[in-house]
Design goal:
about 80 residues, about 80% helix, about 0% strand, elongated
Length: about 80
Amino acid sequence: MSAFHCKLASLALALAAVGGFVLLLVLAAQHPHEAPLLRILAFLWLVAAGASKLVFDLTETVERETRDKPLRRIKE
């Protein structure tokens, strides 16, 4: 995956995290009876999406570092 595609995917994950969080908070404001549950779900959504983005970014960084390193030869 190219650097551009990795950055684009990372941005999409971040926007999905914030968008889902805001959407659930708007639903909580519109439906007062379900508001406590929707707020909890909004928080969980933000945590899960943040963890997903963190794992994606770390995996992409490790992949980039191993791809850029020259191969080492084992001396016997």
